Amino acid sequence: MWSEWWNRFVASDPALRRFRTAVRVVSSVALTLLVMLPTLAWLGLALPSALIGAIVAIQSSVAVNDPTERGRLITTLLMPIPATISLGIATASRHVPFLTVLIFLVVIFAATYVRRFGVRYFALGFVGFFGYFFAMFLRPTLSQIPVMGLAAVCGALAACLLRFVVLRDDPQGVLERGRRTMRAQVHALLHTVRDLAEHPDSTKRRRELQNRSTRLNETALMLEGTVEQLNGIDEVGRNRLRQRLLNVELAAENLLTPLTRAIDHPSGAVPALTPLLHVLRTDPTEFRKAAKRVAEELERQGSAELAMTVRRLGSAMAELAEATSELGSDYTADESTSEQPESAETERDTDEQDEPSDSETGLRRPEVRTAVQVTAAAALAIVGGQLVSPNRWYWAVITAFVVFISVNSRGELLVRAWQRTAGTLLGVLAGILVASQVTGYLATELVLILLCLFLAFYFIGYSYAALTFFITTALGLLYGILGSFSVAVLETRLVETAVGAAAGVLAAVLVLPTSTRSVVRSRSEDFLLRLRDLLRRAAGDVEAEGTVSGLREDVRELDDRFHRLRDSARPLTGLRMRSQGSRLERELTMASGCAYYVRNLTVVLGNSAEMIDTDTRSRLVELLRCMAEAAAALAGRGTRNFDEIVEDMRERAEELHDIAETLPSGPTSLHRTVYLLDRLGRILHDLGREFGFVERRETEPAR
Fold first, then answer.
1. C-alpha to C-alpha distance for 410 and 403, rounded to whole angstroms
2. In this predicted structure, what is the pLDDT of residue 7?
3. Can you tell me the distance from the alpha carbon of 284 to that of 23, in angstroms, rounded to the nearest whole number?
4. Lesser CB count within 10 Å: N end or C end of the chain?
5. Geometric angle at alpha carbon 193, from 189 and 198, rounded to 5°
6. CA atoms of 669 and 286, how far apart (whole Å)
7. Beta strands in 53-137 (DSSP E)
8. pTM of the predicted protein model
9. Residue 629's closest CA among 617, 639, 643, 616?
């Protein structure tokens, strides 16, 4: 039982990234307070000034996300500058309320707009906003600004120490933890199949099975990004690691089909589950042997397809374990080796950021649109917040600001606004309960605040409501330390949060609105165009070289586009709308199927192209190009009628079927390729029916 829960924990947090982030946040805050509190007491200055250091430490640990380690270090060291500047401006203008509000709106616009220049400016703008906000919260004097600047520097240095020395994200360590995560996720997949076998009619468990598969894909995608940072191995070694990550992912995904077939079989028995779970509990060096024993038993029971997939899974897991263990002796890059990829990556990022967009100017630019929306929401929040509390209206502003961060549509904002309000409500209740018991016990209050911070940032990116709950609870404890705790204060915080959330919703609906459906359409087109490009490239490789190579990056790009599409559709699918929601869920299922079959296709297509003659190869190329044309037509970029394209796909697929059936040997890579192309063709045809390109009738695009 304990091992099962541990596997669930590891599987839910790929490479323990959230856990390590939470530890870094809490440790950097604790270190900042450990340095600043005695220093302030010795200087005879107000202890709350140390709070600015804690805020900078938190933002430096969470908001700094430059693509290179050198970039992250530079951004972290720059964080005290905007925080201190905004602190000084807010303090200097405090005695002129109208000017304070006006400058606050300018700061909010600038902090949002600078995101267009890259992730560094996003982090600096974010901490600049919080500097201005906490100046109104703490109400310092100008004489305290230098000390607060010192606290900000201390917070940034503490974050640097934790992030780059004590808990450094070593790519080799991330990959090793990621390997254990993938193993745990495969284990969780099989446990979910077992639960489904016990409740075969459960829609919830079938959805959970799909979610588990998606998480496995996300983990593999994240780890492939980590492989790029391994400077101690050559490109051949990187390609080997990428291929093994893909092999594990595909082997696990391919297990689902035979296992779910066994569940849906009248007998309802899944005899492979118990031995499969046992395989995953063995030492990685024994994966192949254990999988072989299970496969042989399955073959004796007549489950040949399942046995073959189990062999593949055992082999893939063993190869991935061997590949990651081999890194120990290879990860010895010198200075020149480590600097070269970093500078190249930085140059590429700069090129991408500086590339102008001819079609998006002025208010059409997402950054300008968001900045205008956030500023309008903040203005509404100031008006509403002043009506609730003339002294604490800034809580409404911070809600209006943060609900817009990292959202792309009205639907996402509505979900986030609701989660923040619900989390604040529960956090207020918890804050009242906890703070009323421990107020006056400084050590206990500090420990509980650090605990709340750990839990808040452990759930960051996983549950926004949980993040808000623990932050609000910590705020109640902080008010106790500041000597201003009361039930009325937390009640005001709740009402101001509701006002800020309402202001954000109104701004999203009335000011340059971006509908969720338009974002979904845009990302759906992006996914289909990426699929088109991948199929075109595959066809070009097969035609020119007689094989395919280098498609793995294209596959991961396609996976990334699918995850973006799924995330943008979540507000609509989460509402469970009977018509729109169910249709969108069908489209997402089809898009997921496209990505799945393409991942498998890239593995077998090269072998197929090498084994066939020139005539068959040309037919394969024509089919791939037809499918690319179909994907382009679904994205609104087609040059022919969709029905004509589907008819061509059917004819080309039938020709390849006939050729495959004439082969004297048993199932070959060509058979597998034709099967995968069949499935992909069916999905493209079904998407055409959903999009209204073909009539809703039962037709077959390919056998």
1. 11
2. 67
3. 29
4. N
5. 150
6. 28
7. none
8. 0.80
9. 639
